[in-house]
Amino acid sequence: MTVGPDRLDPTDARLLLALREDPRASVMALSQRLGLARNTVQTRLARLDAAGVLAPFDRRVRPEALGYRLGAYATVQVAQRSLTDVSDALAEIPEVLEVTGLSGAADLLVQVAAVDADDLWRITEQVLAIPGVQRLDTALAMRRFVEYRTAPLLDRAAD
């Protein structure tokens, strides 16, 4: 298997960099570009996908294109032993884009997309109504200075 417990090999990294540059590239085009056999590329892509290395497609869709122009991050404090129930309830709110467990004072970091301030208010009220949620602090996302990226890490792994 090309994917180790916590690392990609240089060939996998080069393959992912090529996909980053041309996400619609065919297996044949990738094999020619990388100087690998078509079956090698196909097998590696299948293994990367099965190992969960490739993020879901919806990671590429911007909420703004769907009318959700306001982004926010909320830190949530949760009652002890309610983390799973609260996380499951958050997953049922369509505007919740991502939930990450944290160490420190807050238990969860929740990324939210909203149409406007009134919509964000509605969403925060929904979150506060979840049994086990003790406190919610919200910060508006004003501007993205660095886009989500993995290319610098892939470059390092490819060398």
Automatic annotation (TrEMBL):
Pfam families: AsnC_trans_reg, HTH_AsnC-type. InterPro entries: ArsR-like_HTH, AsnC-type_HTH_dom, Dimeric_a/b-barrel, Tscrpt_reg_AsnC-like, Tscrpt_reg_AsnC/Lrp_C, WH-like_DNA-bd_sf, WH_DNA-bd_sf. It comes from the Bacteria. Keywords: DNA-binding, Transcription, Transcription regulation. Signal peptide: none annotated. Gene3D superfamilies: 3.30.70.920, Winged helix-like DNA-binding domain superfamily/Winged helix DNA-binding domain. Residues 8-69 form the HTH asnC-type domain. The keyword Membrane does not apply. PANTHER family: LEUCINE-RESPONSIVE REGULATORY PROTEIN, TRANSCRIPTIONAL REGULATOR AZLB. This is Lrp/AsnC family transcriptional regulator. It comes from Blastococcus goldschmidtiae.
